[in-house]
Amino acid sequence: MSRRWPxxxxxxxxxxCVTACAGSDSQALMKPVEEVSSAAQATILAVELxxxxxxxxxxxxxxxxxxxxEVEAATKDVASKEARSDGERGSQSExxxxxxxxxxxxxxxxxxxxxxSAKELDGVRAELRDASDRLxxxxxxxxxxxxx
Length: 148
Fold this sequence. Notes:
Elements: H1 7-51, H2 57-80, H3 86-115, H4 118-147
């Protein structure tokens, strides 16, 4: 004897599954985006502390190296996800490009904190803020998409 599920049960369950699947790709990108955003902010703070003589070059360089490792891990995570549509591929490409900008900024910061040049530190801070702002806009868009 086969069991039939009432339509009142099947339809809401199907809608929930489709909705969860649609938002999951944006949600899957959110964690790595948050991690890279935190890495960028931590590096900006280290550069600011170094600019004002509140930390050593060694400490700031170590932090930048650690944050670079975080960005590399998040990049590998996003690159390993399989996109199922053109929209997902586009989002994934945007995230990877934003991660590359943050990574470049962190590399420049790691070099600049050792050079101890105020002008260079200001330039690196601006570069990181721009990359962080770009990532913030992307994070907001992904959050909206995951709620839709």
